[in-house]
Amino acid sequence: MKTKSSKVDFDPGDILPAEALFWEKQGYTGESHIPEKISDFYRESLDIFEQRCEAKALLKSCSTEEALLLFHGLDRNEPDNPIEPIIASAGNLGIFAATIGDEISIRIDRLFDNNEFLTAFMLDSLASMAVDRLVVLCEHYFQENFSNENQNPDIRALSYSPGYCGWHVSSQKMLFEFLKPQQIGITVNNRFMMTPLKSTSGIIAEGSKEIHLFKPVYDFCSYCSSKSCIMRMRELKLN
Amino acid sequence: MKLLENASRSLISGDAVEVNNLIRKSIKEELPVKQILDEGLISGMKVVGEKFKNQEIFLPEVLMAARAMYAGLELLQPILIGENIPSLGKVVLGTVQGDMHDLGKNLVGIMLKGAGFEVIDIGKNVAPEKFIEIAIDKGADVIGMSALLTTTQQSMKPVIELLKAKGLQNKIKTIVGGPPITEEWAQDIGADAYASDATESVDRIKELLGIS
């Protein structure tokens, strides 16, 4: 199999969360009134985000053997996990890393230092939500450009990242050796944390919708605060 | 005192400019600085904390109020130091080793300062030895540890073990928090307290130090 690789730039506007979703994340749901002054801070953080965001991603195709090797990494995964069977049954696999750049994190730190807590907090929330959206765009890009199944509604490419779902974060080491995301400005330290902070990496597994479905009842699920897998699987079943 | 009541009210509504003006006036009128702090600022933050707990307001409004509080506090701080007025307690605060995420830690620091504590923020990716070293050096009452990831929460235990090894567990209390942290986890690793959010951390630390 010939390895395919792509560097992609994304428009900041494409990864911004919908405003309603942003407010929902802050607790303002349904009938909640958002004070005008708070909205002003939101607009300020939005301006900073649009000026400072440099969203980019690097994607590379890989074989099942390569993906499993990266997944096993330093052999520190939870023995029982949902990702290994997903990789094994995926028809098409890739590795990715994506970032919105360092400028926003630097600005957040500076805002906190200057006691501009609300702008800092909102910018941080926007940035985190934007990274989540960036991952979805990477999945779409993979399916559109790395696959022959992009027209098939029953096939879906979804990503899985080290540090989640029983996949130990130490696998970042091999993932970085394989993908070399330094070329888009992402590095990893000896404790497997990425810089810029607002970055993400992982495996993209493409296959029938069923391969992505699992029951979130593993031991580590009780420690998970995001539970994003539940939403993702719900969407998968609906669409 | 009308001036301080107004400052407190402006703080609750997040009006940083007005809080700054009113605290400036209070200083000019030579009101006791501790009274300005307690009645003009801390009392307002207390109301904000209560409203947040009761879900009448959300975190952005808390932070807007905290920003207003700091606009007044920056005027008071040099006088508080000059007059040697003690804080409620000293808290060393950091994100544990391996973790670069400091949003939660920053929010806790903001709320603690707002309640009248002295906060020594030692940043992110902090080694266990550094937590202990700085806590001893600064005469801290509490060490607060934050972690975002399940993989980095493991770095909390060595801090507590080191504190015990030095026989300081009764002198310096520990509190832990962050998205993956639970009450059970805190107990398992021997932490003195756990807080699920920044406002709760203020209450827990007050309990630890016997402050009503």
Structural class of chain A: alpha+beta
Determine the structural class of chain B based on helices, strands and strand pairing: alpha/beta
| N-C termini distance of chain B | 23 Å
Task: Give the rounded overall mean pLDDT of chain B.
Answer: 94
What do the pLDDT scores of chain A average to?
93
Number of strands of chain A: 7
Write the H/E string of chain A, N to C. Answer: EHHHEHHEHHEHEEEH
Number of helices in the DSSP assignment of chain B: 9
Q: Calculate Rg of chain B over CA atoms.
A: 18 Å
Assign a percent range to the helix content of chain A: 40-55%
Helix fraction of chain B by DSSP (H/I, runs of at least 4): 55-70%
How would you sum up this structure, described in words?
The complex is a heterodimer of chains A (239) and B (212). Chain A is α+β, with helices and mostly antiparallel strands. Helix content of chain A is 44%, strand content 18%. Chain A has nine helices and seven strands, in the order βαααβααβααβαβββα. Chain A has helices at residues 12-15, 19-26, 36-52, 64-72, 83-89, 103-113, 117-145, 172-179, 228-238; strands at residues 5-10, 55-62, 92-99, 155-160, 187-188, 194-195, 199-208. In chain A, strand 5 (187-188) and strand 6 (194-195) form a beta hairpin. In chain A, helix 3 crosses helix 7 (117-145) and helix 6 (103-113) packs antiparallel against helix 7. The longest helix of chain A has 29 residues, at 117-145. With 212 residues, chain B is an alpha/beta fold. Helices cover 57% and strands 10% of the residues of chain B. Chain B has helices spanning 2-12, 16-28, 33-53, 59-82, 103-115, 128-138, 156-165, 183-189, 198-208, and strands at residues 90-95, 118-121, 142-146, 173-177, 193-194. In chain B, helix 1 (2-12) packs parallel to helix 3 (33-53) and helix 2 (16-28) runs parallel beside helix 4 (59-82). The longest helix of chain B has 24 residues, at 59-82. Chain B starts with a helix and ends with a helix. Chain A binds chain B through residues 26-28, 32, 35, 37-38, 41, 112, 115-118, 120-122, 124, 163, 168-169, 191-193, 195, 197, 220, 223-226, and chain B through 14, 55, 58-61, 63-64, 66-67, 70-71, 74, 97-101, 103, 106-107, 110, 125, 149-152, 179-180, 182, 185.
